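Appendix B. One record, verbatim.
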Amino acid sequence: MRTVYAHHDNGPMSRLTRWKPWRVFCTDEPGAGHADAVEHVVKFRQGPVGTAALISEVVCGHLLEAGGVATLDRRLVSVDSAFAESCRTQGTLPYPVEVGLHFGMVYRPDLQAGPPTRYDSSFYDFG
């Protein structure tokens, strides 16, 4: 899996999910300029339990691909101390961002984040 580098925060993706995915512009090289940044959706790990949960994202993605299922473009997102500090200073995230590797994927504006806001219950009628 490719590693990209967190460049700057672009706000929440969705507040509907447990992990509060965040939109972050990332670059292929540390310290690259904003013009080279690509938007990603990042699930910042939160302590040991969060780290274990995000490992499952990586493993499951590889298993799905091995089974021939199309998946989103996954990345490891490297966060340095400057990015973590800027997130802390802004105070927009409901938890501190840790320095190190996090799970992310290339942002796809054509996909809806989180659970559906409405669903047709007849879809789930298996009787």
